[in-house]
Amino acid sequence: xxxxxxxxxxxxxxxxxxxxxxxxxxxxxxxxxxxxxxxxxxxxxxxxxxxxxxxxxxxxxxxxxxxxxxxxxxxxxxxxxxxxxxxxxxxxxxxxxxxxxxxxxxxxxxxxxxxxxxxxxxxxxxxxxxxxxxxxxxxxxxxxxxxxxxxxxxxxxxxxxxxxxxxxxxxxxxxxxxxxxxxxxxxxxxxxxxxxxxxxxxxxxxxxxxxxxxxxxxxxxxxxxxxxxxxxxxxxxxxxxxxxxxxxxxxxxxxxxxxxxxxxxxxxxxxxxxxxxxxxxxxxxxxxxxxxxxxxxxxxxxxxxxxxxxxxxxxxxxxxxxxxxxxxxxxxxxxxxxxxxxxxxxxxxxxxxxxxxxxxxxxxxxxxxxxxxxxxxxxxxxxxxxxxxxxxxxxxxxxxxxxxxxxxxxxxxxxxxxxxxxxxxxxxxxxxxxxxxxxxxxxxxxxxxxxxxxxxxxxxxxxxxxxxxxxxxxxxxxxxxxxxxxxxxxxxxxxxxxxxxxxxxx
Amino acid sequence: xxxxxxxxxxxxxxxxxxxxxxxxxxxxxxxxxxxxxxxxxxxxxxxxxxxxxxxxxxxxxxxxxxxxxxxxxxxxxxxxxxxxxxxxxxxxxxxxxxxxxxxxxxxxxxxxxxxxxxxxxxxxxxxxxxxxxxxxxxxxxxxxxxxxxxxxxxxxxxxxxxxxxxxxxxxxxxxxxxxxxxxxxxxxxxxxxxxxxxxxxxxxxxxxxxxxxxxxxxxxxxxxxxxxxxxxxxxxxxxxxxxxxxxxxxxxxxxxxxxxxxxxxxxxxxxxxxxxxxxxxxxxxxxxxxxxxxxxxxxxxxxxxxxxxxxxxxxxxxxxxxxxxxxxxxxxxxxxxxxxxxxxxxxxxxxxxxxxxxxxxxxxxxxxxxxxxxxxxxxxxxxxxxxxxxxxxxxxxxxxxxxxxxxxxxxxxxxxxxxxxxxxxxxxxxxxxxxxxxxxxxxxxxxxxxxxxxxxxxxxxxxxxxxxxxxxxxxxxxxxxxxxxxxx
Lengths: 506, 488
Known about the structure:
The structure holds two protein chains of two kinds.
Chain A: H1 10-24, H2 30-60, E1 68-76, E2 81-87, H3 89-108, H4 116-135, H5 139-150, H6 152-160, H7 165-192, H8 205-211, H9 216-233, H10 242-249, H11 252-277, H12 279-306, H13 310-329, H14 334-365, H15 376-379, H16 381-395, H17 401-415, H18 419-447, H19 464-482, H20 484-491, H21 496-504
Antiparallel strand pairs in A: 1-2
Chain B: H1 10-28, H2 37-51, E1 61-63, E2 68-70, H3 72-96, H4 105-124, H5 128-146, H6 153-184, H7 189-195, H8 202-219, H9 228-234, H10 237-262, H11 267-292, H12 296-317, H13 320-351, H14 362-365, H15 367-381, H16 387-400, H17 405-434, H18 448-466, H19 469-479
Antiparallel strand pairs in B: 1-2
């Protein structure tokens, strides 16, 4: 079996083996369940780190292919559907991000109750989908893994969530599945226009990009389908409404994984499928989506200012930050797109950190309303400091990941010669200030000031597993902030084919 | 007469042998060993199912004066039906031995096998006479089966509704066929196909509308669906599951052959648009009505209406990919729906509960049944990596291959409808998994035959999608059909 000699397939096999291992454990054997989950997550982190250095080594050795580690095995021969694997710099860092968040997520859900076994089963099914999506270069396989990642959300929120969970779970699932309905039509359309010679249709996106055969009028129809399809997951205005409710109701680890990884699938798909395969329509229709994402950025930030529920604040902040990802991708130049990937990394890590901390605080105070809390810094200093670091990363303090990402995005966006794009960039830049407003408001209210509830004085600080979960994420945020060049070197060249395709149709 | 023609119909002969064995067992075995009849019938049918898979037995060609055709597609379709039939028989063993029913268990199995024989004729018939005989053989015994639980009032009502609609739809179809005969002077499929090539008369349109209506009743396409919910609810659950998959699957295949091979010349002029409209309203109405249902059998009735709409996408595609996808869809649908009905039947037999609210907290008391039901719902809703996702994707690909923008719009409408359908499938999942505070159904142990049936369905749902060989071989079969798509 040729496919098993490619290390990428193990990103799917490891979660599947973890699933099998979990299925064999007993419902009551919590330690065995934890052991299997941690083993799986650690193996994924190890493999992801190995992949990063393997990738750097290949680039160092002078391998300049767009994608490395490409393998293609026929799956459905009649429709020319293949199990095609391959990664470039963007997928490599996305895989790394996912691995770290899955790792932190396992520790954040250490005391999951009830039904820990079922929780981890769905959790790892979701991870299978996420990793499968990032390693595939075949549209059908990508789409399949994309939907595999979506459906566990329903049960994860519905069974283990809190608050208005039935409503949120259903809304989230239906909206994301609605997006994927458009996406499926887009993929079928791309498939039937993938080549100039009829009968030799292909699903491999590298071949489709090389053929560049999608007629312009079809691009104008298929581009909005695919972009909206992924845009729903990327929380693009006006399709973002699932995100606040979903995040607010989801259990901690699910919020982490969802904001940290799943929403990145949207941005990644927009860039990899919609823009890369249909550059003409991207140039023609880009302004519509750019305006929408511009609205997301500012609207999300303003909405976060007036929320009082910690999770809602972060969910709206995610809308704003994820809007920035799509915004930068739509600027169509190398710098902004690099910034977009850095923002995905940065947002993934710091939102996961936020949600982990919120979950830990909520687990102690049993409220998420900032009006009912105060002075927590004295009571739980570890969590308090963690929250401040996450907040600083979010508002773009130099030395942490947010600064690098936003700086690159706005510099790259302003590079665009067009006046319309520049005006939008300036408008979007205001979000930096608004972000500072809502972050400092929460930090001031929650961590400092008078203690609102005397019972809170007896609460404990983070325990060992919680410290592992948060420390992992904090270190990652700091590493990106201090050594951005390491990541930029991995990412940068990956955008050359896209930018070339985009400039060739100008 | 050339008796070697009978070699063209090995599956029909095999089925008759099974029928005769069951009949002889029922007639001549002593009373006390009749309890073993359901198991005996299932095992014999299982052996027949496996034997009929042997591919060297496929004899291709026409028999009985071009009235009967045997080719790889009919062979494959009959095998697909056999698999479904086997699962139904397996799941009904325990039910057939229960009180009230056990007196007539012989009849149950004999009538089931006879209806399957009728469906074989529908699939292989290449003359409308054979087709109609097959259709009637498949329909009328089913009315008896629907009325099988004599003690229930609903069962009678359902049977009356079923037999009236069956007769009515046959009458409409025969009217249409008589128009066709008037137009062409023949009832042979091939002769009709060649003589309507340039025909654009109003009579042909009316005839086609009648034929579509007649088969539409069998398939419960909207607006010919009104009997479905009541009959599905009133009939014994095993008969309902049989009606919803096997009966529907055979009618869909026969419908494909009639529309594409016989009336292919009128495709773009006449029936593509009729079917286009029917699909849209079928999927939409089926879905919207399913949302409101609280009785799971009625719920699956409306779900199966909308599924029939998806199956019809394969017919509107009218190409080899569409045909392969349709057969694949039927196979997947058999596994998914039989899993759902299997769970419903087990729970109904044990506790008599059939509404969604009764399923609250099922995961807590009967985790395995809840798991199978969830797989069935996900597969019906088209969630990967389960088989339903693949079948939906392929049937959309088949339809989109025609390339017209109108069909893309149709696919988009169908896709949006999958989201609606996902909503109500998730309602069942929600009841079982999320509402764990109230457990209506106590923990119980189901019979091993029922578990075996559900295991087969589970494996089918998980494996059929991931193993590509099934779709690939179906696709090879349909693309090798020489005379099927010549008229499109």
